[in-house]
Design a protein that fits this description.
Elements: E1 2-5, H1 11-15, H2 20-29, E2 32-36, E3 39-43, H3 46-64, H4 73-83, H5 89-95, E4 98-101, E5 104-106, H6 111-122, E6 125-129, H7 136-149, E7 155-160, H8 176-180, H9 185-194, H10 197-205, E8 209-213, E9 225-229, H11 237-244, E10 252-257, H12 271-278, E11 285-289, H13 299-312, H14 318-323
Parallel strand pairs: 6-10, 6-11, 7-8, 7-9, 9-10
Antiparallel strand pairs: 1-3, 2-3, 4-5
Length: 344
């Protein structure tokens, strides 16, 4: 059993409303947490007990540092300390936040997400590679909006290769903008979440935010821009080279993709896969890799990614065999009695 003392003035900030932060610690670490006055008691397995006590002690420092814990922050803090017991939560929450717009902050939810935002801040070209749901696109758009809000760049340019995800959609009606609009819906979703819809549409109308297919980038020089190439695993080698050579003065570029979900024909080489070998050693370029531990969508997504990875490595899950119903044979074959009428 371990005990942690909490300063009386910040009890509700550390405990949360109706002790929701303490309940989150119990759920995530499998310990029992009880509060009596300013004293918190933790009981459980020795290692989990120590981790929970360390977590609560560090949350005290986070609150005393002026950060207001929000829903989900305790889960993030738990994950960080579980992965790295020497992590300093106060530094992570205070310095890791990104001010995307006035009054709206984006907080990384894993150590790799924090390293990603740091890389975008310190490098002009960043590659983010990892599975779905790890925040690659959302954080890139948040960083772009922050740069535009702080007038560090004049424009945001968001582009994707218009490649269908394993199915043929056939002819799409409408003008060019209406034809490519479905491919860019994830980018619109991120923009509308960070900016209200009206403000985002106004920025697009005056050209401060541009969304265009990758093919439209050929021949352009992108100066004073924040450029994002999303779904880059679906670029060809030629397209990737074309994009990387568009970068002009006072600009930043972020390239995101999942190399396990390439929708190109089998004979074509993914530009993102090739870039890892071609430009990895170039000064000023940073590669950031995510894994299933960085997934911030539904908890099932982590399990799904692990299952597919195991399947590709030749380790079929045991549950798959159990899921196949066995054929049950009757012990005695019933034979029709002599003279019985046959049924057609």
């Amino acid at each position: 059993m371990r005990k942690v003392l909490i300063p009386e003035g910040i009890l509700i900030d550390v405990f949360g409303h109706y002790d929701e932060h303490l309940r989150a610690i119990e759920r995530d670490l499998g310990v029992q947490v009880a509060a009596r006055g300013t004293e918190v008691t933790v009981q459980g397995e020795a290692d989990r007990e120590a981790l929970a006590a360390q977590l609560i002690g560090q949350l005290v420092g986070v609150v005393q540092g002026g950060y207001a814990l929000k829903k989900g922050d305790v889960e993030i803090a738990t994950r960080l300390l579980r992965d790295n017991r020497s992590a300093v939560l106060q530094e992570f929450f205070a310095a890791g936040r990104l001010r995307a717009t006035n009054g709206r902050y984006v907080t990384p939810k894993s150590l790799n997400q924090r390293l990603y935002l740091d890389a975008i801040r310190d490098h002009d070209l960043v590659f983010a590679i990892g599975p779905a749901g790890t925040g690659k696109t959302y954080l890139a758009v948040a960083a772009a909006v922050a740069h535009l809000t702080e007038k560090k760049v004049e424009r945001i340019i968001l582009c994707r290769p218009a490649v269908e995800a394993g199915e043929k959609l056939g002819f799409l009606p409408g003008d060019m903008a209406e034809k490519v609009d479905p491919y860019f819906r994830p980018l619109y979703d991120a923009l509308y979440h960070l900016l209200d819809r009206e403000r985002a549409n106004a920025q697009m109308e005056r050209g401060a935010i541009e969304i265009a297919p990758l093919a439209f980038m050929r021949g352009r020089t992108l100066n004073n821009c924040f450029v994002i190439l999303d779904e880059a695993q679906n670029t060809t080698s030629e397209q990737m080279k074309m994009f990387l050579t568009r970068l002009g003065t006072s600009s930043k570029a972020v390239v995101t993709g999942d190399i396990t979900q390439v929708d190109l024909p089998p004979a074509r080489t993914s530009g993102l896969v090739e870039a890892q070998s071609v430009v990895a050693a170039v000064s000023g370029i940073r590669f950031v890799y995510f894994d299933e531990g960085d997934v911030v969508r539904h908890p099932l997504v982590q399990s799904i990614i692990k299952a597919y990875e195991a399947y590709r490595n030749g380790h079929a899950p045991r549950a798959a065999a159990a899921a196949r119903p066995e054929r049950v044979r009757p012990k005695h074959r019933l034979r029709p009695t002599r003279g019985a009428a046959r049924r057609e």
